[in-house]
Amino acid sequence: MLEKEIKVYSGLKMLIVNLIMLVLSVVIGIAGIKGVIEGGAFLNVAEIILGCVLLVVWCVHLGGFFTLQPNTAAVLILFGEYKGTVKKDGWHFTNPFYTKKKLSLRSRNLNGEKLKVNDEMGNPIEIAAVIVWRVENTAQSFFDVENYAEYVKIQSESALRHLAGLYPYDITDEAKHLSLRGSADEVSEALRLELQERLAKAGVVVEEARLSHLAYAPEIAAAMLQRQQASAIIAARQMIVEGAVGMVEMALEKLSQKGVVDLDEERKAAMVSNLMVVLCGERSTQPVINTGTLHN
């Protein structure tokens, strides 16, 4: 369905016309009744009929008045045929036989429920999203889907389930550059684009889509926490070892350049071992003072 705007009249101007019509119907009716009582001429009977007709028309016209608040639209239908949409706020008048169906054009929040799905690696996770959307095409929202609000909710859940299966929860391979946890902006934009494609049929515009909840499922949460802790410990150890090797290398080079002491290969190996223990150990080492010679 293509949306089209229809022209309506000012409610204030038509109110004046209706008041004039009401006054005329009363005046003509009273004059006719008075004439019938006095003489009963045919013209007086016609005046009574005309007054009644004007009164009926006035009553029917009352159904043509309607008001619209800002960011609200009215879909006008005449005997099952779509005639147009009114989006201008204010007090309006239109054909009284039009059926007026009002729709809100304001932005709405859809706070989705937590869904239990599998990520790209097959791990069960819990995920939820917040969707900000609004109606853009009133004809599509009203005629192309049964219930556009329910349609948005169901399609949002479907899109979120599909998206969760395209990305891993976290980056476990250097070849993977995107993850649900580490690439929130990219994942949110991908969700918004997919939702926009799905909801275009309902005349809905998706303004924003964000993940509101993301976690491993309870049955594997503990195991995944241990895995993350192990990965963090390994990464920290690698950094410590790299730094310790650099410090030992620098110490040996300085001692050799300044000629402070001349160490053979065996003494160098012992020194390297001691320094590595001191630099890489989790606890502080206790110093031991050598009171003998270098080789004792």
UniProtKB/TrEMBL annotation:
Occurrences of domain Band (ranges): 63-228
Source species, domain of life: Bacteria
SUPFAM superfamilies to which the protein is assigned, alphabetical: Band 7/SPFH domain
Keyword flag Ubl conjugation: no
Transmembrane spans: 12-33, 45-68
Source organism per UniProt: Anaerobacterium chartisolvens
Pfam families found in the cross-reference section: Band_7
SMART domains to which the protein is assigned, alphabetical: PHB
InterPro entries membership: Band_7, Band_7/SPFH_dom_sf
Protein name: SPFH domain/Band 7 family protein
Amino-acid biosynthesis among keywords: no
Keywords for this protein: Membrane, Transmembrane, Transmembrane helix
